[in-house]
């Protein structure tokens, strides 16, 4: 494994982090931190517990030109088999806090698990966010790509987003943020770290909320591979493509090019939902990448459609 990045020795970085009191772990197996259970060993996993240590790490990384990548719940990433040319940054401490500041006004840390948080909020009687209780991962990851399902998306309910941009803390009102289907301006600007969100929610009918929680959970169980290691939908739905008034879904295109069930090593295009790739055991990131490239190629040749990935490559896939 390479032990240097950008000409800087990891042992030097370790002692600098110790000096700055920035918590970190060495030689961390990143496959343990993602839903695919794929990925290699990170030389350093830095875990700031508050704004001060986060900004201290970001200044250090900027001053010494040390690259880093932010990992949340790891449910939308394909992690490299060799994630050793950057530092992995994962928020902890205060970023895992959740407060109801006043009735219906929630302040939610970006390192909080989405599913239990929104189940709890729904169970408190607040309506609208039931769909979020079925999306895995952390709140920061949900914000960055405007996660959604069953007709809702997280930005429908966000009041403001707290971020660190260029080492400065800012609170952005939702009107100032550009977002769309499974995308936000933050996805392109990798200098933004989401730290917290504020939501204003209304009380609803508790029976209806309970019904929706159950309905969405059942829908998911019936349409997606259960108990399989995956990162959810691999491709976005190409919403601009219509043929004979039909709006194609990514899974239909994948099915039509014959990739349902296709295998590469221990990676397989799911038989149940062919926009999912599953890890049947010890798949490597390159096994998944082979399937992704084959799908892209076949769909482009048959339909002249360039599928866009929903999952992100975390580190080099070469
Ligand atoms: C079984 C399954 C079903 C899924 N169903 C859905 C669905 O219905 N709808 C949907 O939208 N998604 C779905 N997903 C995808 C995924 O759950 C969401 O995209 C989720 O919101 C990602 O959050 P995460 O914390 O896991 O992000 P990660 O996978 O950790 O990271 C994703 C990206 O966000 C960045 N990031 C993460 N946290 C931060 C932060 N605090 N600041 C800055 N950047 C950050 C990372 O650098 C990375 O680029 C599904 C995934 C699985 C495994």
Write structural notes for this entry.
The protein has helices spanning 10-19, 51-63, 114-123, 139-144, 185-188, 206-223, 250-256, 285-303; strands spanning 4-5, 8-9, 24-29, 41-46, 68-70, 77-79, 87-89, 98-102, 105-109, 148-149, 152-153, 158-165, 168-173, 179-180, 183-184, 192-200, 229-233, 242-243, 246-247, 263-264, 267-269, 276-279, 312-314. By secondary structure, the protein is α+β, with helices and mostly antiparallel strands. It folds into three domains: 4-90, Uridine Diphospho-n-acetylenolpyruvylglucosamine Reductase, domain 2; 96-208, Uridine Diphospho-n-acetylenolpyruvylglucosamine Reductase, domain 3 (2-Layer Sandwich), CATH 3.30.465; 228-314, Uridine Diphospho-n-acetylenolpyruvylglucosamine Reductase, domain 1, CATH 3.90.78.10. The strands form eight sheets. It has a five-stranded antiparallel beta sheet with strand order 8-9-16-12-13. A four-stranded mixed beta sheet has the order 3-4-7-5, covered by helices on one side. Strand 14 and strand 15 (183-184) form a beta hairpin. The radius of gyration is 20 Å and the shape is globular. Bound molecules: flavin-adenine dinucleotide (FAD). Flavin-adenine dinucleotide (FAD) is lined by residues 35, 69-77, 91, 110, 135-138, 140-142, 144-145, 147-149, 193-194, 224, 230-232, 312.
């Amino acid at each position: 494994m390479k032990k240097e990045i950008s000409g800087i020795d990891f042992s030097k970085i370790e002692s600098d982090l110790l000096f700055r009191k920035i918590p970190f772990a060495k030689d961390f197996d990143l496959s343990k931190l993602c839903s695919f259970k794929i990925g290699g060993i990170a030389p350093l996993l830095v875990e700031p517990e508050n704004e001060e240590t986060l900004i201290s790490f970001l200044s250090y990384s900027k001053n010494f030109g040390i690259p880093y990548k932010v990992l949340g719940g790891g449910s939308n990433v394909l992690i490299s088999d060799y994630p050793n040319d950057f530092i992995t940054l994962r928020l902890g401490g205060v970023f895992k806090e959740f407060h109801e500041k006043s009735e219906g006004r929630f302040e939610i840390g970006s390192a909080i698990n989405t599913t239990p948080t929104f189940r709890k909020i729904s169970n408190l009687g607040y309506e609208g966010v039931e769909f979020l209780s079925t999306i895995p991962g952390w709140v920061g990851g949900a914000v960055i790509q405007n996660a959604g399902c069953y007709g809702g998306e997280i930005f429908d309910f966000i009041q403001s987003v707290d971020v660190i941009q260029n080492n400065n803390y800012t609170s952005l009102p939702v009107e100032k943020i550009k977002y769309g289907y499974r995308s936000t301006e933050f996805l392109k600007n990798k200098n933004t770290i989401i730290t917290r969100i504020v939501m204003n929610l209304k009380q609803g009918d508790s029976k209806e909320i309970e019904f929706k929680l159950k309905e969405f959970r059942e829908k998911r169980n019936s349409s997606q591979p259960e108990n399989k290691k995956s990162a959810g939908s691999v491709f976005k739905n190409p919403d601009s493509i219509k043929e004979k008034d039909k709006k194609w879904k990514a899974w239909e295109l994948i099915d039509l090019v014959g990739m349902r069930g296709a295998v590469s090593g221990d990676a397989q295009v799911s038989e149940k939902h062919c926009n999912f790739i599953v890890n049947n055991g010890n798949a490597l990131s390159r096994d998944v990448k082979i399937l992704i490239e084959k799908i892209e190629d076949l769909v482009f040749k048959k339909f002249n459609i360039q599928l866009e990935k929903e999952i992100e490559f975390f580190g080099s896939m070469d």
